[in-house]
Design a protein that fits this description.
This protein folds into two domains: 246 residues, TIM Barrel (Alpha-Beta Barrel); 88 residues. It has 369 residues and is an alpha/beta fold. It binds flavin mononucleotide. Flavin mononucleotide binds next to loops.
């Protein structure tokens, strides 16, 4: 199977700019991170899951989750809940706030969501799924998409039935995480069910789960026939992954990670956006998480990482980051590995004093230094 020309995928009237989407992740895919990923070519980046009980939307937490209007790209808001009417009200409210697409979460296994029979727990009750989808689709005149897992547990992998039901209900695209609700994040994602779903429906299907390299994305696209891939955890600390994966899928071009100088600028810009978006206290706290992920991808950075995740002010976080990169850039040079195309750090050689032709004169001049 060949990789489909996913750049042409349409969700309602919206044409995606590429085949790689950012997965919604509560506590991670906030507006500053979405902005980063979109800048690197993610073609869609939904908000973190938002509870469908709109009476909660005035809280600080939900106000920041629903702050999506400044982000470039298609404004897609994810809602979670189990009450069809409440979900419909939430969808309409999000549309009135400027959402261009509503995404329904039936993929999250978090206990807090499942105890209330929402997220992936809904997959157990196909009648309720039908009611929710119908209520939400009818309540808005913008496209509605759905995110699911492959089923409730390995013995009840009803992903194909849910997908067919979704298409019949007017859902415009599906993202499928290749695990069941019972699997949580254990084991490896399977793509067989995603392949079956893709061949069962005519709406765009995005494959999700454990996609962490351009090569893996390519394999999953070929195997499932999906219209694109959705990447979550692997994007933490390396938002440039979207560009690497998209270029590989579309042009078979391998894009190396950004140079050290470019990484410095990306991280500093991300820190600045988080500090501004959340304010000093929360901004510093949220930035610590992201700094930890950035640190995972850095070499020779143990001391910097130790210090920066303990820094307690925005200025300290910025200064430590800038100093680390500037010093590393001075001490090391970046050398391109001809085999992989990846950049490697190489300690700059200390320049030896220039040897003069006459060794006896050289010895004299050195001893005089
Ligand atoms: C910390 C965390 C938070 C998540 N929050 C959401 C969420 O709010 N909505 C949702 O649909 N899925 C959520 N997910 C699931 C991801 O969207 C994605 O399906 C899952 O991580 C598998 O993809 P990956 O292997 O690329 O990370 C979350 C996952 C993680 C790790």
């Amino acid at each position: 199977m060949t990789t489909p020309a996913a750049e042409n995928t349409l969700i309602g009237p919206y044409r995606l700019s590429g085949p790689v989407l950012l997965a919604p992740m509560s506590g991670i895919s906030d507006a500053p991170f979405r902005q980063q990923c979109l800048a690197f070519g993610a073609s869609l980046a939904a908000t973190e899951m938002t509870a469908s009980d709109t009476s909660l939307w005035n809280s600080k937490k939900f106000r920041s989750r629903l702050d999506f209007n400044d982000t470039n790209g298609i404004r897609i808001v994810q809602i979670a809940g189990s009450e069809p009417r409440q979900m419909a009200v939430a969808a309409r409210a999000a549309a009135e706030m400027g959402a261009e697409i509503i995404d329904i979460n039936m993929g999250c296994p978090a206990k807090k969501v499942c105890r209330k029979l929402a997220g992936s727990a809904l997959l157990k009750d196909e009648e309720l799924v039908k009611k929710i989808l119908a209520a939400v689709v009818e309540s808005v005149d913008i496209p509605v998409t759905l995110k699911i897992r492959t089923g409730w547990d390995p013995l009840r992998r009803n992903g194909v039935r849910i997908a067919e039901l979704a298409e019949a209900s007017g859902i415009k695209a599906l993202a499928v995480h290749g695990r069941t609700r019972a699997c949580a994040y254990k084991g490896e994602a399977e793509y067989e069910t995603i392949r079956a779903i893709k061949s069962a429906v005519n709406i765009p299907v995005f494959a999700n789960g454990d996609i962490d390299t351009p090569k893996k994305a390519d394999q999953v696209m070929r195997w499932t026939g999906a219209d694109g891939v959705m990447i979550g955890r692997a994007a933490r600390g390396q938002p440039w992954l979207f560009e690497q994966v998209a270029k590989f899928l579309l042009q078979k071009v391998y894009v190396p990670r950004p140079s050290l100088g470019a990484q410095r600028d990306i991280i500093l810009a991300h820190l600045d956006t988080m500090h501004r978006f959340y304010g000093e206290h929360t901004g510093v706290r949220v930035a610590k998480k992201h700094l930890k992920w950035y640190c995972r991808n850095l070499v020779n950075a143990d001391e910097f990482c130790f210090q920066v995740i303990r820094a307690n002010s925005s200025i300290e976080q910025m200064l430590l980051t800038k100093t680390f990169f500037d010093r590393t850039l001075k001490e090391f040079e970046t050398i391109k590995d001809p085999a992989s195309g990846e950049s490697r750090l190489w300690r700059r050689q200390k320049k030896l004093p220039h040897l003069k032709k006459d060794p006896s004169k050289e010895a004299r001049s050195l001893s005089q230094m």
